[in-house]
Structures
1.
Amino acid sequence: MSGSRPRAIIVGIGTECSSFAPHRTAMADFGVRVGDRVLDRFPAVQAGRFGEVDFVPGPVSRALPGGPVLRAVYDALLHDVLAAVRHGAPWDGVLLDIHGAMLVDGLDDAEADLAEQVRDAAGGADVVLAAAMDLHGQVSRDFAQLVDLPTCYRTAPHVDESDTRDRAAGLLARALTSGVSPARAWCRIPVALPGEKTSTRVEPAASLYRSLANPPDGVWEAALWVGYAWADEPRTSAAVVVVGEDLGAIQRECARLAEEFVAARDAFTFCGPTGSLSWALDEAAAATDGTFFVSDTGDNPTAGGSGDVATTLDTLLADRRVTDGAGDAIWTALVDPDGVRAAQRVGVGGDFDERVGGCFGWPARVGLRGVVRRLVSDGSGDVALIAVGRLQVLLTTRRTPFHTVADYARIGVDVTRTKLVINKIGYLEPELDAVSSGWAMALTEGPVDQRIDHLHFERLQHPLHPFDAIDDSWRAEVEVFGFAQ
């Protein structure tokens, strides 16, 4: 150790990127945290639960999921991370606060590149690296070799983000203060599934993730990554990493998790009622009370959708039950800065007649004729609500998810009094789920099309379910890195 008290720096660059999104993640898409705003993400660290280690906040950058990160943007963010790491080097430990499914133009395996460069800047081979990640991240062999203590969320929808970051901090503190160098067992799982088929609310993911909470003796941590199915990269797949002092125990636990995941591959099904958009609208029309939600899944911006896919709008405008029905309906949200500016020019109550969609290049634009119902401008960007009968179409200047009741309240919409909400989202986030009287997932087109076989992959490592047959006799090939003492 570099002194009587171990020192660890927290840094990271995190986002989730679809290879199929025309959007490119630019510097303006990232928010950079420094100082106490980084420690705010680690409640147990902030509360001094790991007081035997000095955790020092460095820059942590996060962006809303979308298209691949521009290389110049990644290089600039990495420059700032490395500058902060070098300034305090040598470090005893580094905690990477990342997502794990970042794509960077012209660079394979961005997280492995980040880990390698941070390790070198921090002091080299003797530095202990931990990582707190999303369970939809990717864990390649290279990344598993580089990072001593990786872990990830155990819930989807994610309700344990802070717990996971604190768990990663606790693992790092344990390694730095115990004098033990745990080994880690890694296995690539030849399965790629969309998140909406692997929700931990339902089986088989529910049982698999519950089993992580009580590891066998000799195991410090077991982490299971579903992976990110919309990345056209060789590393795309599920993966498992088990960390501990007992080589046999970590290998057995790693193999168990991998083999149970593969054995359950056909049991992973959508976590809610699912079908075509027309079917979902039929389900909504049959509902009598409360608010019915339809997930417009193919262009979910929090999964990497570009937000500019307008094809759903065609179907909504053609359905008289939506435009002329007994209750209000709203579709959220189509990013279209030109459309918002057109609405601002005519003002509230003015006639709107524009073609919308495709602002990033998705090859579809749709004619929208209606009346400007509302204009809102605040720190989250400008928005325009265009009314077509009972349907309100929300246009935004920025890619914007709508995951909470407050998100809708900001634009003057009470979702509890809205009959039909069509939302660019996947599974419903907890707050919307709590106020819904019914829900259907529509399989729509877009950069995160749930029907991944509809997308054109070129670089995947095969065999990979569901693209290839996996023999029922498949057995895990576990690799071990590091040395237990």
2.
Amino acid sequence: MRRLLLVSALLVTACGTGSASGDAVPVVIGYQSKTINTVTAGTLLRDKGFFEERLKELGKKTGKRYEVTWQDYDTGAPITAQMIAGKIDIGSMGDYPLLINGSRTQKQGDEGTRMVSVTGYNPRGALNSVVVPPASTARTLADLAGQKVSASVGSAGHGTLVRALGDTKVTVENQQPSVGASALQSGNVAALSQFVAWPGQLVFAKQAKLLYDGAALNLPTLHGVVVRNPFAKQQPEVLAEFLRAQLDATKFLHAKPLEAAEIVAKATSLPVEVVYLYNGPNGIATFDLSLKSVLRKALKDDVPFLKSIGNIEELDVDKFIDDQPLKAVVESTEDLTNPAKIGGDPATASEVWFDGEPAPRPVATPAELLKLVNQTGKKPRVGYVPDAEIGTRWFAEHVFWVNDGGKLLPFTTEAAAAKRGAVLTFEQALAVAGK
């Protein structure tokens, strides 16, 4: 009898626990921790707990308990698959994966997905680049003709490659970013075309050099947030709190860019110097939730390419984008100015971070950066300078310098630099600046 009573008590306890868990409203978030252009809806947002805090406050009003699950993926494709299966409610991914997401779920009609915000973007397309091994003799994309190039087919990095190649023919090896990076180092491919942060990571590690800067295309590239429409309709207040939390994370990144970069670096094992290149002040990525008209147009312009390679069918982009939830939370803007600024003219403002110092020092121009390095006699941990023509922020040690009539100018690619004069290394540029 005692054993029966004990078993009954355990069953009641177990049922009670199950009931409590069943009372919770589940919210499943799909994100890509190493795609650092989505951190305000992923890695940084998760670490800071802004969403959970807001849901806790929401629960005080609704009487409900919200249970958030975060699922990390390498690319947007598995997030889309899980959303189609109804297993992920909110996801973040790049522009091409977003369009593929919308196309594949449009067959579900109102049960499909909607894009509700932007995480980060670059108005010229600098988030995607093509890199080659340090010893490569290639100077332009045309030099890759007939060779193998690694890319994730259907990704923004793939799109940049195809558009930039023009008539140049290469063999595209469809590989995940990490596989492609290994293939590049082993010599199995001649180049790698990928999205943030792979190009910067490989160049910083001296495992690659930049061959083609996506900003040369002058076509916006972006990442954003997509939600299952049934979830948005059933839990509109939860979606609203997610967007508010995304805004919280965005404001934190703007106010404390180095701390934000350190958080993301720790969570992803990426070097903080690489994260800061993209997400810091004047960074390659501009973080703003607004569904700007220029970004909408960019998405529409991307559809024909994705159709041409068979990755999507027709997609009504205007229907896919739903800005109503965001309008209820934040005032949108068409301004393309990066809110995270170093100070001074963004076309020349630079930073240098010396070993042993807690943070980078801002300087007015790339030439001033060189002078400061000479004056201190210290080895820079890292330096950041904007390309003299297209403005892409890049590593001072890995840009190509030109002495243009006594003015030292940095360029992200050797081909661009060579058009302006004799190409100098960082050490050579330091020597010129010291004269």
